[in-house]
């Protein structure tokens, strides 16, 4: 009887093991679990000029020469995200709230994530100019905080009413020396700049706490500049989620600057425990081969940032062609087709 019971147990165990996995030569082969999915990595473009260009009859063509929607072309090239700038009361209406909503609806319908870029100006804000909107011209720092909060809240709630919640929101554009000058100029009064960033941050989180707030600085290779700005914000109690960077190298120096940018990105992660994102890149449209190498390398470097905290890379206005607005750093050729530069996003 004991022998019968032992034989029965052996048969039972063998049968159970065969159910659990394949066997070869008596050895059980256990199938390993699939690797965890990689975190979402944004590959995108700022196409804020798009509706203005379309209004003038400008067309876009895919690599086969077939006319197609510009955002669809970019998606087919591997992009999964789109960036739009927001101006307060622009003279011609482009980049106001209604224009941003119209573009954002199109992006959402294509399944693209959205990065929203508040300039807090009626026109361009960048390292050389951070002009207050005309409607805010006489406001002091207390009133400006309210205006920043209300404007940010209104735009985001309007998007939300249209079923759109951006994944990321920039509080300011290339704020190397603060924003809303002179009151918010960082080199004059870092605390005032911090108060304005806080107002924008609080407005974003009031709409949806899951939206990541970006503070955006140009020259992503300049570690000293980034430490100065973000040390100043941290000292003044500012919260933010993402350190945003711009990169506009030449065909001759992109490799050196990319290496410096990687050092800076890792320093931002270590120093502030924040994520990083390349919000803008560009290179002359007729240096497309070098630009392809530059972007491909920068994507690899951004993906390699410690802790998987490199979030993505965005090309700035690639659809600009034929010297549109005298801008020559687009990535479409003079026939309206994407150049080889954009193949880096595949």
> According to CATH, what is the class of the largest domain?
Alpha Beta
Q: Number of helix segments?
A: 9
The main sheet orders its strands as 3-4-5-6-7-8-9-10
**CATH homologous superfamily placement of the largest domain:** Glycosidases
Cα end-to-end separation: 68 Å
List the main descriptive attributes of the protein structure presented here.
disordered N terminus; 9 helices; 346 residues; 8-stranded parallel barrel; 2 domains; alpha/beta; TIM Barrel; globular; 10 strands
List the helices and strands and how they pair.
Elements: H1 2-20, E1 22-24, E2 27-29, E3 42-46, H2 50-55, H3 70-76, E4 81-86, H4 97-109, E5 113-118, H5 141-161, E6 168-171, H6 190-207, E7 212-217, H7 223-235, E8 242-247, H8 254-272, E9 275-281, H9 288-303, E10 310-316
Parallel strand pairs: 3-4, 3-10, 4-5, 5-6, 6-7, 7-8, 8-9, 9-10
Antiparallel strand pairs: 1-2
Task: Write up what this structure looks like.
The protein is α/β, with parallel strands linked by helices. It has two domains: about 1-30; about 40-345, TIM Barrel (Alpha-Beta Barrel). About 40% of the residues lie in helices and about 15% in strands. It contains nine helices and ten strands. It has helices spanning about 1-20, 50-55, 70-75, 95-110, 140-160, 190-205, 225-235, 255-270, 290-305; strands spanning about 20-25, 25-30, 40-45, 80-85, 115-120, 170, 210-215, 240-245, 275-280, 310-315. The protein has an eight-stranded parallel β-barrel, surrounded by five helices. α6 (about 190-205) links the parallel β6 (about 170) and β7 (about 210-215). The longest helix is centred in the middle third of the chain and has 21 residues, at about 140-160. It starts with a helix and ends in a 30-residue tail after the last strand. Mean pLDDT is about 95; it is low at about 1-25.
């Amino acid at each position: 009887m004991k022998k019968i019971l032992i034989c029965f147990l052996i048969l039972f165990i063998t049968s159970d093991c065969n159910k659990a996995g394949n066997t070869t030569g008596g050895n059980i082969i256990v199938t390993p679990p699939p690797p965890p999915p990689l975190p979402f990595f944004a590959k995108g473009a700022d196409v804020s000029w798009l509706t203005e260009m379309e209004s003038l009859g400008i067309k876009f063509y895919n690599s086969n020469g077939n006319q197609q929607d510009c955002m669809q072309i970019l998606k087919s090239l591997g992009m999964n995200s789109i960036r739009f700038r927001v101006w307060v009361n622009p003279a011609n209406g482009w980049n106001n709230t209604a224009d941003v909503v119209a573009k954002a609806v199109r992006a959402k319908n294509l399944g693209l994530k959205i990065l929203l870029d508040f300039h807090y100006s009626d026109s361009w804000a960048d390292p050389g100019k951070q002009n207050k909107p005309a409607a805010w011209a006489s406001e002091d720092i207390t009133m400006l905080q309210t205006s920043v909060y209300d404007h940010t809240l209104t735009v985001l709630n309007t998007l939300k009413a249209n079923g759109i919640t951006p994944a990321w929101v920039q509080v300011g554009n290339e704020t190397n020396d603060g924003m809303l000058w002179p009151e918010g100029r960082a080199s004059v009064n870092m605390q005032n700049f911090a108060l304005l960033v806080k107002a924008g941050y609080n407005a974003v989180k009031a709409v949806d706490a899951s939206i990541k707030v970006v503070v955006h600085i140009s020259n992503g290779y300049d570690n000293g500049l980034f430490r100065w700005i973000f040390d100043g914000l941290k000292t003044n109690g500012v919260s933010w989620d993402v350190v945003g960077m711009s990169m506009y190298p030449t065909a001759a120096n992109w490799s050196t600057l990319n290496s410096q940018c990687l050092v800076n990105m890792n320093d931002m992660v270590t120093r502030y425990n924040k994520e990083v994102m390349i919000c803008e890149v560009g290179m002359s449209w007729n240096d497309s081969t070098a630009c392809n190498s530059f972007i491909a390398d920068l994507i690899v470097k951004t993906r390699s940032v410690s802790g998987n905290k490199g979030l993505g890379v965005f090309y700035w206005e690639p659809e600009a062609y034929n010297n549109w607005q005298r801008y020559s750093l687009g990535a479409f050729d003079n026939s309206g087709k994407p150049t080889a530069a954009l193949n880096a996003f595949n």
